[in-house]
Amino acid sequence: MKNRIESVMADKGFQRQLRQRRVAAPESVEAWIRDAELLAEGAVEAIEKKAEFEAPAIPPPPSPVPPSPAPAAPGGPPPGREEAVVLLEGRPSLMIRGDRIEIPRSGIWVRPLLSARALVEPWLRSVGRVEIDDGFGSRHGGTGWMIAKGVVATNRHVAEAFSAQRGGQVVFLTNFTGAAYKARVDFREEYQEPQQLEIAIERVLFMEERDPQKPDVALLKLQDDPQLPPPIPILMEGPRPGAPVAVIGYPAYDPRYGVDALEAARAVFGSIYDVKRLSPGRVMDVAANSWYFSHDATTLGGNSGSVVLDLESGLAVGMHFRGEFRTSNYAILASEVAKRAEENGVAVGRRRGWAPVVAPVEEGLERPAAAEYTNREGYDQAFLGDGGPIPLPKPTNALSQELATWGPDNDRTELPYTHFSVVMHTKRRLCVFSAVNMDGKKSVSVKGQRPRWRVDPRVPDVQQILGECYGQETEGKFSRGHMTRREDPNWGPQAVVKRANADTFHVTNACPQMQPFNAGIWNGLEDYALQNARQDDMRISVFTGPIFRDDDPSQFDVLIPVSFWKVIAFIHDGTGKLTATGYTMSQRDFLPGEEFVFGQYGTYQTPLSAIEQMTHLSFGKLTKSDPMGVLPEAPARPLRSFEEILLV
Questions:
Q1: Contact 408, 565 (CB under 8 A)
Q2: pLDDT at 65 over 60
Q3: Which residues have CB under 8 Å from 256's CB, separation 6+?
Q4: What is the pLDDT of residues 203-212, one digit of tens each?
Q5: pLDDT score for 590
Q6: Rounded to the nearest 10 degrees, how much is the dihedral formed by the CA atoms of 23, 136, 248, 228?
Q7: Which residues does 191 contact at the CB level (< 8 Å), separation at least 6?
Q8: Each residue's pLDDT tens digit, 76-86
């Protein structure tokens, strides 16, 4: 080692660096070589900070984790490491994969996380891992999150790993060869997911001075990139003690902890580190007139700079920065981070109030008890008899990750009702499809007052559109359009018919539609199919749903589906064979503010193969039973009358 040190010191370039920085410290060189060897071996987690060879006039800042912590100054939290395990039980750290939380099947956090999923998951992609390249290798530096367009918030001590205050401005550090450090934020880095979204850090916009009485905050400007995720809105009020929160970041293995802490970390994380995780917990205490609060969510080294989301609103309530093992973790108030952003000319999205982002339950909506649904059998795949079983449409892998789940083990996606079933989309808060069995021989007409619309208690409110976009057409709002029509499941004994009719009035079976949309040929397709079904039983199965597109218009904070699809399956009376026909219709010309496009209205008979591509669903053997399927690349056919429908 000594010969290697002497060899490095004899290098002319290194000597010039030493003269420029007025440093002559062989022990610093030796430390640098040790670190370089560790980097080569991939043991970057053992390095707290590189030797920076700072000039005496600008001494290097002390380590953010001093070996012997001094008492905290008034106004600051107690000294400690950047992160810690607080509770040994009941505080998991959950994987995030495909921008979705892997919620456990049991435990105290299942229900809270299911309720918060629709509020929290849209912001998961806005959290990234800060990565540092000193010219000899890359390492994980901490976590950052989008606070404004093109701006990431993190801790000061994370930014200090690649930058420093010099002459009134923040500049990137350089290694002993004079090469500047590079830093980036990777917004992916999920477990067993190969995708990356690395965006370079251009500069440090702001770095709070090192003072225990001031928040540990830094703001990073990213390079312009069309893939930049959206900023997370800020909850401006302070957190409430006991409120549920979640820390989102990249926990890393940290050998500096003692044996007890390392064993606790292994119990929570296994051996999987440096990937995006969500750690739920609760606010412990809020210091009066201060800039921080404590929480008990599980964190590790690498969580520095993690966003703390309020699970009741889905908004950023804090930024994690420090913790004490089995005592508490600490977070900076998000309002304090936002204040520093605005003081530096960065516009931040502010939201006040503890009400959830989604609208409150509309007055008049019923709330049945979950126990009332034990007798709902739902869609019957064997309903068509000789046609063989017709299972529910199967979602693709990507879509399957976005389905609402429920049940004792949180593994069911089908919501059964009377003679029909619904599958819900968590982010869109609408059904992916509704599937119904219709029996024309036993159909009963229901008269009297319409039932009231109701919420389904089996899925969280935040996964259902309750009232945001529904209302008077004179106000530009939408009607609740039934996916399974109210008359379709109304067959059998009178008590069953009454229940089936009421079941169609669940908000899970509705999509926002303009009133003129649900009329004409579209609304009569089921009846026409019944006329052509085998007359000895007159049975059909109908699948209906919206077509979700990224460019669907946003109105009243809801993405409004422009187009809808329908697939009808039955045993043809003439051929005796299974027949399946598909249809699409657009409501674009009915939407307020949308430009009229001739030909965009009306019902089209559409190949099932095309509907599969638009919906990311598979209809299995029904696609082979489509009369349009025999026509190569058949285009959708506009329908002016029922007689134009191809049935054979």
A1: no
A2: no
A3: 48, 65, 81, 301
A4: 999 999 989 8
A5: 64
A6: 110
A7: 95, 96, 97, 272, 275, 276
A8: 665 554 444 44
CA–CA dist 14, 178 (Å, integer): 9
Read off the pLDDT of residues 579-624 as tens digits, 9 standing for 90 and up.
999 999 988 766 655 443 333 447 899 999 999 999 999 999 999 9
On the 0-12 / 13-18 / 19+ scale of CB atoms within 10 A, 364 is: exposed
How far is Cα 497 from Cα 446, in angstroms, rounded to an integer?
A: 8
Beta bridge partners, 540, equal: 438, 570
Taking residue 103's Cβ as centre, other Cβ atoms within 10 Å add up to 21
How far apart, in whole angstroms, are the C-alpha atoms of residue 158 and residue 82? 10
Which DSSP state fits 469? S
Tell me what pLDDT residue 37 has. Answer: 40
Are 605 and 636 in contact, with CB atoms under 8 Å apart?
A: yes
Q: Are strands 234-235 and 350-351 parallel, antiparallel or unpaired?
A: parallel
Query: Mapping DSSP to helix (H, G, I), strand (E, B) and coil, where does residue 125 land?
Result: helix
Mapped onto helix, strand or coil, the DSSP state of residue 266 is helix
Tokens (6 digits) for 33:
């070589």
Distance CA 183, CA 202 (A): 8
Report yes or no: 533 and 478 within 8 Å, Cβ to Cβ. Answer: no
Which residue in 292, 318, 141 sits closest to 212, CA to CA? 292
For 342, the token pair is 């605005």
- 499: nearest Cα among 547, 530, 459, 454: 454
Task: Estimate to the nearest angstrom the gap between the alpha carbon of 370 and the chain centroid.
Answer: 27
Cβ neighbours of 206 (radius 10 Å) = 20
- Residue whose structure tokens are 């009376």: 573
Please give the structure tokens belonging to residue 399: 């879509």
- Helix and strand tally (H, E) in the chain? 11, 32
- The string of DSSP codes covering 241-265 is TT-EEEEEE--B--TTS-HHHHHHH
- CB distance 287 to 82 below 8 Å: no
Given a contact cutoff of 8 angstroms between Cβ atoms, the answer to whether 173 and 164 are in contact is yes
The two tokens of residue 5 are 């040190």
Both tokens of 64, joined, read: 């953010």
Rounded distance between C-alpha atoms, residue 46 and residue 39, angstroms = 9
Work out the end-to-end distance of the chain between its first and last CA atoms, rounded to an integer number of angstroms.
84
Cα dihedral 276→277→282→284 (10° resolution): -60
